[in-house]
């Protein structure tokens, strides 16, 4: 294995996953499936004898709880854990909380496909009239960020996710990886994809077709310039992994084919 | 309320509490009562509208899980061995009867009740020695593995805790941050002794209830402006203190 490596993880299900609604910055909890996915992930990492030096999460509770459950399985609750908004899920703006049908109704299916599948098209911003606006922006966690509250995103493309994630990677995470520390990043579907795009040099066109399974530890080996030395690898029981990938892809197909 | 304040919490029960065995540095989990105590504590805090800026715990999972249950999420948590429970050396894992058998009741009372008497150290032959010292958490401390305690008096607990208080915690309190320490019976007592100026003789008689939030208000020199206060339903707290005192009496009375 390369001297420099990273484990990235996409947390498991919350209630809105089953309803096909974008959770994004709404601070939803993991449901019982999501909790179990986190524990399984921990068990996988334990079987592989991972000893983490540092854990990074977003400020959304589902990424933190996933990390806690993994650390508990490993008996490594004491490992330092740091949370940043810069690892948050992509901000879906006005689309937050809407399900597929509602979105297609409001904006037209073709437009919604573009927002979901493009790399650099930003959905309409969330505004004060949005049902979840105040729940998000009144929360104290966004008053103590390294960016003023009114400067935080109101909507993002995947490109914009990477733009706000990269300074955190460069300043906080990368230096630790370069010290040879074993780092776990407990993140979200799009923030994980954005980081992998950067580290693996995946093109704007290709990244939209990459879906990460939930609750599966993703290993990325890096060279001394912190470029990937090969494609990311899923760790653990390969059959279970294939099933997890299929599950996420099938959910994507349901989303795309429902009219 | 004073500008500078601190919340300290002694975590709840683990399995060995009921068996009257010293858990100390053995990394035991909270039992269902201990988990419930943490949940209750979280509810109390919510009712009091406390919002923490920082939380400090030991590296023992029961103090971390207590903090996690109280917080629900995203307040920075920092863990240090310097907040660990008192190291009971060779007495770890033994219950009252066994200890009295091995060392004599009077000697055990002295170890438990004195401020500066250190029990015999744990050695490689001790059933829990390797479980403790092989764990990677003790390889990344700010002290080398072979320099970490093998036994401690309450005085020695304070001696290793104080640098951490002075360098990491106190500066945060002085910035006006709302800080919680999720700690253990003896590490909490040691810190309160220091901040409240409790004498060596008096500290022995102070028992802290489990799962009850302890508020200490401090002046700008970080000395207590009054005795520590227990937050929450006062009757429930009196019952909890009674329960802990009762357990101590059982430990002391049984022959």
Automatic annotation (TrEMBL), chain A:
Q: What class of enzyme is it?
A: isomerase
Q: Where is the active site?
A: 11 (tele-phosphohistidine intermediate), 89 (proton donor/acceptor)
- Report the PROSITE patterns cross-referenced here: PG_MUTASE
Q: Give binding positions for substrate.
A: 10-17, 62, 89-92, 116-117, 189-190
Against InterPro entries, the record matches this protein to: His_Pase_superF_clade-1, His_PPase_superfam, PG/BPGM_mutase_AS, Phosphogly_mut1
Example GO molecular function term?
phosphoglycerate mutase activity
Task: Give site residues, Transition state stabilizer.
Answer: 188
Source organism superkingdom:
Eukaryota
GO terms under biological process: glycolytic process
Alphabetically sorted, this entry's keywords are: Glycolysis, Isomerase
Query: A Pfam family in this protein?
Result: His_Phos_1
What EC designation does it have?
A: 5.4.2.11, 5.4.2.4
Instruction: Tell me what reaction this enzyme catalyses.
Output: (2R)-2-phosphoglycerate = (2R)-3-phosphoglycerate; (2R)-3-phospho-glyceroyl phosphate = (2R)-2,3-bisphosphoglycerate + H(+)
What's this protein's function? Plays a major role in regulating hemoglobin oxygen affinity by controlling the levels of its allosteric effector 2,3-bisphosphoglycerate (2,3-BPG). Also exhibits mutase (EC 5.4.2.11) activity.
Its family remark reads: Belongs to the phosphoglycerate mutase family. BPG-dependent PGAM subfamily.
What NCBIfam families does the record tag this protein with? Answer: pgm_1 (TIGR01258), PRK14115.1 (NF010713)
- Name of this chain's protein: Phosphoglycerate mutase
Q: Which organism is it from?
A: Jaculus jaculus (Lesser Egyptian jerboa)
Q: Which gene encodes it?
A: Bpgm
